[in-house]
Amino acid sequence: METGTTEFKGLKSNVIGLVGAVTLGVVMLSPAMTIYANFGPSFLAAEKAAPLIFVWALIATLPTAISYVLLSNKYPHSGSAAHWIKRTGLHKLARWAGWMVFFYYLTNFIIQPIDAGVFLNDFLKSAGYEPNIYTYIVGVLSCCAWTAWIVYRGISLSIKGALVFLLFESVVVSALCMTVFFVAPHHGVQFTTEGFHMNASPTGFSGLFRGLIFGMLSFCGFDVISTLAEETKMPGKLIPRATMIALALFGALIVVSIWVLTYADTSEHLKIISDAGGMPISEIARVYWGKGAVFVSITAITSALGIAIATAIGSSRVLMSMSREGDAAKTYSKLHSTYQVPWSAMHLIFGLGVSASIVTALFLGPYQTFVWWGTTSTFFAMLTYLIVNIANIILFRSIIFKNANSFFLHAVIPVIGIVLDGYILIESFFIELWKQGWATGQSVIVFDLLCAILGVVFAFRK
């Protein structure tokens, strides 16, 4: 056994309250990173219809969020979706589900050092320096090192660090959107509601569904709250409440912010910026704030740190839970004797995060690396959400027909979630993504399917 670790000792209990759980959820959703990273691909895909993408994404997320609330209330557990499926008696499916959930949180973690590297390059560019792949790698390594310093030392410190990052980024995001809203009209811009209509997308449904991948990615993350079940006070009540509060606060902020930003610049100009490896939001900030645009790069980096904290917590808890139940290597169930966090699991997560961020960028470049891993993470999120909705139906099957309310919550809601998630998965990934060529389209599909097949191999190896 490793020095300083212990097996089967429980995580610290009763250390997270409602504010802490909501904080981690909103940090994982991340208003700043959604706007900074996901606005660009969505706007380039659907232009003025970008706000509609995020409304659709919120609507598509709600049925699954309700299923999470219902399951967390009845069966709170750090293993979340995988544990819920296991309770149905479908043990091999539960093992596969566990790996899909783990891949979801892991790939979301990988995105964060990538974002830190991309925005470090933007910061250097704003400061008058010429960025390159080596400065990107410095950003990657710095993000992982700082995040590791926080999360390896316990859950309480992780929550406090995430809250500081969240408050800082929220102020800057709000300030940028308010600047655009008040300054743009002086340049002839007229704000309208056209962005909430399908005809605002130049390529119609095709553009909307391409952008919807990043709309769904924006709302992926509220579920990390469910992995805190063993560390929260009264998890059966607190986790469902924190989940809905986090989603409501985030949804309102994002839809309004994206609507404002669609009037900040033209898609033609922003496409030139993205093709050159830059972030569209950084260009908008340079137009409206000049040298003050460095604050966007700084908050993007701190936002990446905050999400990295949340995803490192989520992925390590899922892997630890799988290990304790015999579905992953026994070493990942070991907790540090002092900090009581799964160090062994986090060793794997940080190692993969560093290597994936750097190796992919060597082939695709920093910005396209974000697009590649962002798309990949959304694929596993959709699979996870399908699993949760299925668990809602199976685990509550004995009371589905008890009354109209039970039928609505445990039959109608999860079926709607399954239909919406399944349709988005097919339309956005296996149809629209395949049209985008090999580099950031077909290669993603092949990789995701290989991981899903690998999960099947792990699930049925016993």
Molecular shape: globular
Q: Name the beta content range.
A: under 5%
Task: Characterize the biggest β-sheet.
Answer: 2 strands, antiparallel
What is the typical, i.e. mean, pLDDT?
80
Tally the helices: what do you get?
Answer: 16
Give the helix level as a range of percent. Answer: over 70%
CATH superfamily: Amino acid/polyamine transporter I
Task: Assign the CATH architecture.
Answer: Up-down Bundle
Count of individual domains = 1
Please give the order of strands in the largest beta sheet: 1-2
What brief labels describe this structure?
single chain, 462 residues, mainly alpha, Amino acid/polyamine transporter I, two-stranded antiparallel sheet, 16 helices, 74% helix, globular
